[in-house]
Amino acid sequence: MTELFFQGKKPQDWLLAISALILFTSPWTLGFTSDVRPAWNAWISAIVLAYLAFASLSESKQWEEWVTLALGAWLIGAAWVLGFSADVVATRIHWLIGAMTVVFSLWAEWSFRHPPRPMA
Asked: What is the Cα–Cα distance from 15 to 7, expressed in whole angstroms?
């Protein structure tokens, strides 16, 4: 049953969905809800990331990988742009999830351009 559910789905999209969950819960679990800039950025970015991951799971489009890549770049730079780089915990979780998002989206783009060959 689960094999049928996962058939044809990219592992990158599942990893992005898990990353979105981690990012969404991080203000509570890591304790930076009192600073609204990193908390709201984490919540909004996580919702967008989850949407992109689940949209790609239902029907993969190449543009989704590029938007996901841009979101990962945003997460990496958000601490400086929004001015919360002094909050080390919030900054690091944004960097971590941002870097993972960039890697997963590049991996998905590579897989899109180089589909696996059928075994003979």
From this structure: 16
3-state secondary structure the chain: CHHHHHCCCCHHHHHHHHHHHHHHHHHHHCCCCCCHHHHHHHHHHHHHHHHHHHHHHHCCCHHHHHHHHHHHHHHHHHHHHCCCCCCHHHHHHHHHHHHHHHHHHHHHHHHHHCCCCCCC
The structure's pTM equals 0.83
pLDDT of 82-99, one tens digit each? 999 999 999 999 999 999
How confident is the prediction for the chain on average, in pLDDT?
87
